[in-house]
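Lab channel / #folding
Pinned by the channel admin:
"Please post every new chain as: sequence first, then the structure tokens as a reply. Keep commentary short and put observations after the output so the thread stays searchable."

First post following the new format, from NK:
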Amino acid sequence: AEFVYDSISSASTQLLAVEILQSLQGGKVIIVTPADEKAMAQSKVEGKPKVEVANILGLGSHPAYRCVSENLAAHLGDEDGYVANGSITLNRVQVVEGGLENIEQALKANKEGVSGVKVVIRPHEA
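Reply from TO:
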């Protein structure tokens, strides 16, 4: 099966992800915001490969899991938390400036085997 993880999940990126998967005979789009109506309609167009659009749940955003996320946040971020006392070490980051226009630069860094660094782009930067 083919998958697209849409970490931006705007209306236009959801629709694009659906169209890409339809050109590849179907698959699943994973989004981080509520599904866009146009993307949902496109995913079910008669005569086109079926594409499922599914939202992933952030742990802290659902009331049923609040007891877990609040406890985790308290242990991670407090003055004596896991980050502060060194039990958890955060990744170093390498920010590629310029938003999506410089995505190739970010991908190149990954392909060249950047090590111990999380390559970050900020999609909404101009």
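NK: Residues 14 and 55 are 11 Å apart (CA to CA).
TO: also worth noting, The first helix runs from residue 11 to 23.
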